[in-house]
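Regression test case RT-17, inverse folding.

Input:
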């Protein structure tokens, strides 16, 4: 029997070194291979059935809107109900499969994904608009989730280790076991369309639940490729049911369904709050309170004091603000800088930003497109708002290209109460605010509805300790950028309107997909 001591120790999947020419050629070859596969049609996957529907979601390359990545069958309420019944039926057998056996499917999937790493990254580059490093990191994180959650489920299944209980006279075999919940709905985002989609799905699956996966309409092909991978490793049919479809028709129907046991959602605050509200209503025939695992974004920031390494701070600000065009819930869209070094930091940030290249992700431009026209228009509208709130020092316009390109944009001298300092934009827009001292900087950082990630740059230990205690966010980084959390190293999740503080990639995450059952036995005389 597999146990936690019989498998290799967990370690993060290494990132590809693209300074090596052979790695460049390998990814370029993978991109060409994937390009040869574009335009395929993908079915719904409900149990054993592969269902081609008349209505399709057309996925396009956001960097080249004339390039179709694929056409994906679109579900409706009828198929949502069919998927629910299939998931319920499969749950009755899947919940009885031992944890090590469930984990083995994840280990096999991680091995296959590792072998095809560049191919998955190529799909990320073409369908979501990530450059090479961002796509490679997304794929690596997906592998990490598979490896980490497999080990975690094995650990949780070893009852003598997961929660040792005190003994009492007259009782034996006193233990806690973690049992699955039932059918879960996974609603995944476009911005980490492999890592978050796969991680949230397999967290539910390895815990013994069955899942209905509703991926983002912008990146459904990547999700389809992942479902194909899980089928290839032999995962029983009905454990993962693939159901793209309209958010209201399919998503809300399943959120409100009386047999839904949990919802794992990553996306906007508005949608997350609606899911939280609708899932709280106990429907006729529902005999539980639905569990919500929600990650809903942030308005993250980097605070820099006058003792900081100015070059390191400037580099971190640019990387956090403009990595993947600012389309990360952890993106550092605010820089809060003490006035005595303000001008220096702003100058360095602007200079670094103006050196970024805008272009096609497939040729590894620093800055690619935002995800779609809706996002483009929203971001451009915030840029217009910013022009009335601060001083435009970089960017400010749509960029050239047959896609949704926006110049990396920086506003300096932004008041702490400005909209672009308060509201999540989810694009390549950075607001910089001047503060008189570092404590005020932390206060300004905290003055937001969100609380996901943050950074504090200082060389003073007493100030760092103050920040650790008072800068209010789920993931606080000292003297480093506020993006790039690693599975098993930086469990990820935030406070307030950033969500339910579910620490993805952490040692308590799978508890969200299980329920604890205490059993004890009276000693026989």
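Golden output:
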């Amino acid at each position: 029997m597999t146990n936690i001591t019989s498998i290799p120790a967990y370690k993060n999947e290494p990132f590809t070194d693209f300074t090596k020419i052979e790695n460049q050629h390998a990814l370029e070859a993978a991109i060409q291979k994937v390009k040869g596969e574009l335009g395929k049609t993908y079915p719904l996957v409900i149990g054993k059935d592969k269902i081609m529907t008349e209505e399709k979601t057309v996925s396009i390359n956001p960097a080249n809107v004339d390039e179709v990545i694929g056409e994906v069958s679109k579900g409706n309420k009828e198929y949502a109900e069919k998927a629910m019944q299939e998931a319920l039926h499969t749950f009755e057998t899947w919940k009885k499969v031992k944890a090590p056996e469930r984990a083995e499917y994840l280990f096999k999937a991680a091995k296959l994904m590792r072998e095809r790493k560049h191919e998955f990254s190529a799909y990320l580059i073409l369908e979501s608009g990530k450059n090479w490093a961002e796509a490679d990191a997304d794929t690596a994180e997906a592998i990490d989730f598979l490896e980490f959650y497999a080990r975690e489920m094995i650990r949780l299944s070893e009852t003598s280790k997961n929660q040792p209980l005190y003994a009492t006279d007259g009782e034996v075999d006193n233990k806690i076991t973690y049992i699955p919940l039932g059918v879960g709905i996974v609603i995944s985002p476009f911005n980490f369309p492999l890592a978050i989609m796969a991680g949230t799905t397999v967290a539910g699956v390895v815990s013994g639940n069955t899942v209905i996966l509703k991926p983002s309409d912008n990146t459904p092909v990547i999700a389809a490729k992942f479902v194909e991978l899980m089928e290839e490793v032999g995962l029983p049919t009905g454990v993962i049911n693939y159901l793209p479809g309209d958010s209201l028709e399919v998503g809300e129907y399943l959120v409100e369904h009386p047999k839904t046991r949990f919802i794992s959602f990553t996306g906007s605050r508005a949608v997350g709050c609606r899911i939280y509200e609708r899932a709280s209503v106990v429907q006729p025939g529902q005999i539980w309170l639905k569990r919500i695992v929600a990650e809903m974004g942030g308005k993250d920031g980097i605070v820099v004091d006058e003792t900081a390494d100015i070059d390191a701070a400037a580099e971190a600000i640019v990387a956090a603000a403009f990595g993947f065009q600012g389309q990360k819930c952890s993106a550092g869209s605010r820089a809060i800088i003490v006035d005595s070094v303000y001008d220096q930091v702003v100058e360095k940030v602007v200079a670094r930003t103006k050196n970024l290249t805008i272009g096609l992700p497939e040729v590894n431009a620093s800055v690619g497109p935002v995800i779609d026209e809706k996002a483009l228009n929203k971001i451009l509208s915030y840029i217009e708002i910013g022009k009335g709130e601060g001083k435009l020092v970089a960017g400010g316009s749509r960029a050239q290209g047959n896609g949704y390109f926006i110049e990396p944009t920086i506003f300096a001298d932004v008041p702490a109460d400005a909209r672009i300092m308060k509201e999540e934009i989810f694009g390549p827009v950075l607001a910089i605010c001047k503060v008189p001292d570092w404590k005020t900087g932390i206060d300004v950082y905290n003055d937001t509805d969100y609380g996901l990630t943050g950074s504090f740059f200082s060389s003073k230990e007493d100030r760092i300790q103050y920040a650790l205690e008072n800068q209010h966010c789920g993931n606080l980084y000292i003297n480093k950028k506020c993006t790039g959390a690693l599975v098993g190293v930086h469990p990820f999740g935030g406070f307030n309107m950033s969500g339910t503080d579910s620490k993805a990639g952490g040692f308590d995450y799978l508890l969200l997909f299980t329920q604890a059952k205490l059993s004890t036995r009276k000693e026989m005389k």
